Amino acid sequence: MTAHVYKITEVVGSSTISMEDAIKTAVHEASQTLRHLRWFEVTETRGHINEGVVAHWQVTLKIGFTMEPEGANK
What we know:
Helix content is 18%, strand content 51%. It contains 1 helix and 3 strands, in the order E-H-E-E. Strands 1-3-2 form a 3-stranded antiparallel sheet. Strand 2 (37-50) and strand 3 (53-66) form a beta hairpin. It is elongated and about 55 Å long. The two termini are 26 Å apart.
């Protein structure tokens, strides 16, 4: 079995549609600059209320990604 080492970064996604959309937005944007994304954990959920209805979702995620072996970019 191969051992895995992960680095964790924290990002916040937002959406006017849903919590799920905020998560997908955060993961997509993180994938634009980070490689080897493997998992995420929702650590916080917030929202903005306007005139009695949810107007905006904001979700904080921890995203784990595997590190490249030393010398992989050489």
